[in-house]
Amino acid sequence: MAKVEKSQALKEKISILPDTPGCYLYYDAAGNVIYVGKAKNLKRRVSSYFNRTHDSVRTMLLVRNIADMRYIVVPTEQDALNLENSLIKEYKPHYNVLLKDDKSYPWIVVTKEHYPRVFLTRTRIKDGSKYFGPYTNAGVAKAVLNLIRELYPVRTCRHAITPDYVAKGKGRLCLEYHLKNCMGCCTGLIGQDRYGEMMDHVRQILRGDTQELLDYLRTEMEKLAAELRFEEAQLLKEKYDLVARYQSKSVIVSQTLDDIDVFGVDDDRDMVYVNYMHVRRGAIVRSITFEYKRRLDEPIEDILGYAITEAAEKFDIEYDEIVIPVKPYIELEGVIYTVPQRGDKMKLLEVSTHNARQNKIDSLKMMEKHDPEKRVERTLERMKADFRLSVLPRHVECFDNSNIQGTNPVASCVVFRNAKPSKRDYRHFNIKTVEGPDDFASMKEVLTRRYTRMMEEGEELPQLIVVDGGKGQLSAAVEALDDMGLRGTIAVVGIAKRLEEIYFPGDSVPLYIDKNSESLRVVQQLRDEAHRFGITHHRNRRSKGQIVSELDDIKGVGEKTKQALLQHFKSVKRIREASIDAIAGITGPSRASLIYNALHPEGEQLDQ
What are the residue boundaries of the GIY-YIG domain, all occurrences included (predicted)? Predict the structure, then answer.
């Protein structure tokens, strides 16, 4: 693809760009923002769009639509990352990666009040309150909230309880107090300092600092027991057991790790799933997956940058160390990037990646449940990419040869439409021009007969041909297409049985497709179906051959007689074993003697 020439005014703007971090905005002719980007070096990054050829069609379309450009200089790369995130959300540019984050997850909020409340919410308000989460499972959030209320009598009323409110005696003890679910904040029965200590413990649980809380409860429990205050010690022991059970349910990865943030990635070409996990004292206390839709061919390094910024903004995070599969393009000041190869951090990354992959599977299942055609389109898109096709393979045909020691050679052709069998289009062939067991020549004959006839009858040709076999069968198929002038019109690949290698014409090195790939599953199903269909036809032909050789050659025995015998005796073997009288009961005495003598050429002959 050729480079795109831009206006003189745009060239001048690019020529004076600074060599500093910043963000750039591309506008189309109508004045709409169509792309927002970040850069460590604005001049170098922006110039790269116009001074080189792009392999991506989508990037070329972006460049062609750029009519104007503006930029914003910032002090650091981290500022550029944060600004880009804000600008994308503000303008929603057509060509930028799209965060598909329309889910509303629950949070547990600790309000900023004299006597804070703790409750579940799906809306974050910037009022100084502290939000913990989000919880991807609402059931887990409710379980945590129930644990807190079992441990501590946190108030649930909505009164604005201030020191003035308490001093004026406006509060009235309610049923929650008498049920011992509240300590009478509204009447001043519990002071702010004591209530604040209780809320510190609540925040520890929500942050995942359960070990510190357990240590505190154990110390206090032992202190009360030493003072012979056994009833109070027993109450603390019950709280201790509740917290210990809650901690045991956390996913403990390593006792040697402290605070760490992990980003695992599963790349599905057009969609990228990034799982973010926060680990505290070796336990996973937060896990959420972001879904990004690619608009251009953004590399994983860019999308990781988006996810890191998104998580920091959403959860008010200050990173110390981030564990990631690859380093993003922009460095964050004071943040350590770790790409682990082994050990506990590698195990953490594997857990995060597994969560990203599971989220992808769940999203696809949900999408396919509402729109089954989505799965078909996704499968065809994957096949198009894996088999290097220029169009979606909506019509695929697979061929297989069958013969036993060169006898009764046949071939089968199975047809898939939209990645599903189209059995009414299946065909089988008896090999006519090939002598002996020559699979390569048989393959060439069958393809020639198949597509010559389809062209003569004006039928639509397939987009992909799959031949069951390696380089030899593939070469024979390519020769057939060459002879018919179809080379380049129909794509053809071969699949070898042993390691499921995929061979391409002119390429001596096979392709090994991921064993879990939908493309490989479709091709395996094609190959197995062609084999089954071919074997069935071959078996029927051999059976028919046996009948022809032993019954049809008997003079005086017609088709009706033969069918009557087979219907009664079920096989030629049973006819041979039957007595002359049994055969005569079906055919009459004269034909019975003919049949008996023909089936016993070396045995006892009956007189005519």
Answer: 19-97
Domain 8-96 has CATH 3.30.2310.20: no
What's the number of CA atoms in the CB half-sphere (13 Å) around residue 521? 9
Considering the domain 386-541 in this protein, what is its CATH number?
3.30.420.340
Does 386-541 match 8-96 at the fold level?
Answer: no
**CA dihedral over 432, 438, 443, 444, signed as positive or negative:** negative
- Alpha-carbon gap, residue 327 to 329, rounded angstroms: 7
Delimit the domains of the chain by residue range: 8-96, 107-251, 260-301+316-367, 386-541
The distance from CA 535 to its chain's CA centroid, rounded to whole angstroms, is 36
What pTM did the predictor assign? 0.52
Q: Name 447's Cβ contacts closer than 8 Å, sequence gap at least 6.
A: 399, 465, 476, 477, 480, 481
Nearest to 571 by CA among 592, 546, 539: 546
Residue appearing with tokens 């269909």: 533
Q: How far is CA 580 from CA 150, 573, 590, 606, in A?
A: 94, 14, 10, 9
| Residue 317, both tokens | 């995070």
pLDDT along the chain (608 residues), means of 10: 61 84 88 88 86 75 86 82 80 80 73 88 81 70 76 84 83 84 85 87 75 76 85 81 62 62 85 85 73 81 86 81 85 84 84 82 68 76 85 90 64 88 87 74 88 90 87 87 88 76 76 73 85 71 53 74 80 82 85 80 53
How far CA 243 is from CA of 120, 140, 144, 231, 232, in Å, comes to 20, 15, 10, 19, 17
Tokens of 15: 């020529």
Antiparallel, parallel or unpaired: β 427-430 and 407-417: antiparallel
Question: Each residue of 329-349: b (16+ CB within 10 Å) or e?
Answer: bbebeeeebbebeeebbeebb
Structure tokens, 21? 């971090």
> Is the sign of the CA dihedral 117, 120, 124, 130 positive or negative?
positive
